[in-house]
Structures
1.
Amino acid sequence: MTKILSQKPKFIVKKKFVWYLSQKTAARLLLEKTLSTNYELVKEIQRMCESPHPQRSGVGTLAHSLNKLLVQNGHSVYYRGNKE
């Protein structure tokens, strides 16, 4: 988990319950902390779709499309954006 998160991916997509983390408390807590600290749920940034800023509108459209498709299948989508 540390190796994956250290690459700072722009998007992280996960199901609400990740079965392989249920027995790995340290990895699960690291993922939860990273998501809450460094990422935003896509539904919170969907306003970017309406943004007049061209540099952000593409990201917002992508986030909206990903969110719609993946949430229908029980996933959550997180976006890193400019958070460090």
Note: Strands lie at 11-15, 40-41, 75-79.
2.
Amino acid sequence: MRPELSPPFRPLGELYFSDWSFEVFSPDGKWALLLQDRFGPYHVVSTQNLRDYLEGTVPPDKVEQAFVPSGLAALVHSNGRWVSDTEFEYQVGETLRTMRAEVK
């Protein structure tokens, strides 16, 4: 596929260049981890459905965001990375608390 024919990635919110310091694809290449805003969430999308997701015709397979108790400020999500074919980690907040999740 030629790059000019690929649908672009359009996050839901604002991302900074530094927000992209993580691994997008799982080690087996079956999943993509896409941060939507610097305050989350991450969308997990099977690469089989990635084109349709980018075109907006299918939802993500999973939406992952750290829980923020009512009344507290939103937490910056960063450093997303794959730890196995189906598990990923990311850090939240100023203290960089590590969260871990599975694709399903």
Note: Residues 3-102 form one domain.
3.
Amino acid sequence: MNIKIMIVMLVLILTACTNTQTAPIYCNDWDQENIEQGGIYIRGELLVAFNEEVTQQQAEEVLASYMQIEIDHSSGNRPIYVIKVPEGKELEWICTLKEEETIKNVELSYEDELES
């Protein structure tokens, strides 16, 4: 086989491999639907709600067990925690946190939710 043809084929193969983009992985329909409809979420921020029997101390211990999470603030008697995660990793963190038995719900923090 001609060396020029081999080089062109190699370049095409390498280009095809490096140009692949993976689709985001959603762990809930709510976020997928909102993002696809143009919902604007706050980068690096999630909302987390715990099951009713979980105390505030237990909730904060669960969140503290993840080294990359920072509790920004919480509100209400049954607090909804606003947590900081690495930007661009929000969907991954949703999937990770949904595995926690004590967590009732975790979702992206949308800009319009904070305006209400």
Note: Helices lie at 3-18, 29-36, 56-64, 90-98, 111-115.
4.
Amino acid sequence: MALLLQQGRYGNGRISLRLQGEDGVPYCNVTTNVPSLTPGHGCVFLDNHIVPDLNGVAIIPDVLDFLEKTQVLRRTGISQEYHQSFNTFFEAELLDLDLPTIDLDL
């Protein structure tokens, strides 16, 4: 499956990463925006769909591994709990803060 990784910005100025098909149809968000939590400098919160759960299963597999292997980002090991939900948000450092559109062949 060929997907395009595109960098953008959320309304509050934070970096967003999204995957879309070659036809422009959105596939998934790589990042999530949690306005009440603050990621580290040059970091983003990973969307829960690409992060493996306690059983090692991700809803959208292979995306996170691919982004790490191609040195787009790296997990920092830092997580933050959001007090208004049961979610834990995992942080990743972007290794390039000005990414070109990247063609992912998963």
Note: The mean pLDDT is 87.
